Amino acid sequence: MTGNILIKPSVQQKFDSVMQSGRILFFSAPCGFGKTALANALLCGHRTLRLCADAPDFTLRTLPENWDVLLIDDFQLLQEQETAQALCELIRANPTRRFVFLSRGVPPSYLTAFQYTGLMTTLEPDDLLFDREDIRGFFAARKAAVTESEINGILKESIGYPLGVAVTARCMSGGKPFAPEIVAQAYREVFNYFEDAIYRRFDLPVRHFLLDLAPFERFDLEMARMVSGDPRTGNLLDWLLHNTTMLRYDDVRHFHFWPQFRAFLLWEMEKECSEEKRRAVFSRGALYYELKEDYAHALECYTKSGDHAKISELLIRNSEQHPGMGHYSEMEKYYRALPESEILASPSLMQGMSMLCALAMDYEGSERWYGALKNFADCRKKQDPAARQARSRLAWLDISLPQRGVEGLIKTIPAVFRLLTDKEITLPSFSVTSTLPSIMNGGKDFSEWSKKDDLLYKTLRIPVEAVLGRDGVGLADCAIAESKFEKGEDVTGRMLSLLPQLNEIRNRGTPDMEFAVSGLLARSQLANGQAMDARRTIEVLRECFAERGLTRFLPNMDAMLCRIDMHTGNLDAADAWYREKAPREPTHLNVMRRYRYLTQAMVEIMQNRPDAALLTLSPMEPYIQNCARIIDGIHLNVLTAITLHRKRDERWRERLTAALDAAAEYSFIRTVSVYGTAVLPLLVALDWDGDKKWYKQLMAAVRMQAAFYPHFLEPRLAPGEELTPTELQILHLLCADKSNAEIARIMDVKLPTVKTHVSHILDKLDVKRRAEARTAAKKLHLVPEDL
What we know:
62% of the residues lie in helices and 4% in strands. By secondary structure, it is mainly alpha-helical. This is LuxR family transcriptional regulator, maltose regulon positive regulatory protein.
């Protein structure tokens, strides 16, 4: 801290490095980041020549001699090539002098050579944003009291934007608490500043362009051109990228606005644009998303544009083109908002509602819409195209509805095959896997079929592949290989014959089947102790799918990579997945995410948080029972048993017994053995009286996995290192910066007792100081991240 200016240690370090061995320090950040004040504080004590590129008399030709550092503010305004050349010559001719440039834009290309040779250091917005410690220090320097919860609120609202923090601090002067009215006042002041200092300085075409794009969190050149209708879109984007830091790259093709500036643009849009203008912008955005078949975003934009007819049309088209996936969770609110009369007039919408209700575990509602669709078909002549469409949708639902199980499919599929052959129906596309890396446990659970997999492979392969069309390419060979794998067989030979079919699957089949085959390969590699090969298999497929825009598969691929990380002991990576990508929604079950829920529970077990794991697992039980999900049920029972065992709850025996009974009935081995060392002590302690031959095979497979991955699901704190309830309470207070005396008062214990507890806590966390205890506690998930 210099005066009232906060200097972050990382910024001070970069400044010192430039002063010692560099040449240029380039500040690249939007206005309001305190670049000028910060630079002046850093340069205190240095002979500094200060110039402003916006000054009428700015020149580099005649400079005085008595300076060590040249500071140029508003550097983004240096546009002339002659000035740029003169600056580069000045830098090269003065190796003992230093240069500090303050810019709202990015470093210009003529400085690239200095950056590549390590002579220029760039400070970007992320380097200047405040964190909790910075905000605490900022208020302390002004002798203003602020609580930890207020710091968290200020950080959340300001995202660490220095001007936002400074304005908030001024609004709170006089002891005012951080409250919604303070937030509103701070936003108004910051937005007024943006309006005067940035927005009004842009030309009108740039302003209009910014307002057109403000409603969209992410966009590419094509979308920007379609939404704005401006033929100069490419030039405008290029100008913004080079002359401001408000527009940022997501990747090579996609952009987003800096969040605070986007919030300002939306505020400005409300003021400047008429309702008709705003609706037109959303309508153009919706058209872009529609053409990209991003129906969830298209529906959101059509809703904001007030175009109800397009919403209904889009839902019908989506259910006709993508009934297997349907994007039902993203579109549920739009389906629910449709008038019932409109749904009853469309076979596609009735099919969509039946599947949507089923996925929401409203099976009564699902069957009601199925009945409405059947009544629609029965009330029309057989030759009526609408009746034919309804019969096709009914056949699709007979195969696809999760509550129907698979028992009747042996009769249903040949019957549907005959209808297809006779051209009485045409089936919409399916999603056999529901984007999961499995056929046996994808859209349906085919455990029952696995009992006679060889027979069904011979008799049903042709009709199944015909009924499923593109989804059937490669299905039969992958399904029987997976069935054998679950039973503990070595499927290396089957995989060698299956993998050459991947090109055919890519050309004639679906990405669902491509993921199923690659997923089975990765699982077999993991089972054989080849974890790095398994990771590479999924990483390569993920890169390929991301390039092809198949983003719906990526969440389950990431969950699969997380499972591999847990097997190999990469706990930090598993923690990162949990923090950034785990669903964590116990009150709203989405059955399409069940693979991620199970992965989430595994991470919580690894984090030594059994109660959190049970909270994640328990909502899945009704779905598993109602839809006869045998494999999911085995996984759920094994994970619940492991969790209860760690809580020393004897009900683990009942759960593990249920898992073993089900696995033995279907001869499944891998479904249990994948938990290796985590389930081994339970199996040793359990007196299970089932099939001894199968159990012997299971134990051999479990011991093999335990040998390959001896730390899988191992808790980060061993039982002897676990904190007692009292120690956990004191740890929370310690992390809230309470002194030992304050802790003693709150806990109503003597001060020496607190000191003893703190000493035990530090020992168990293997740290020396209280500050280190907070970091360790967050890493072990013993305290909240924001504490």
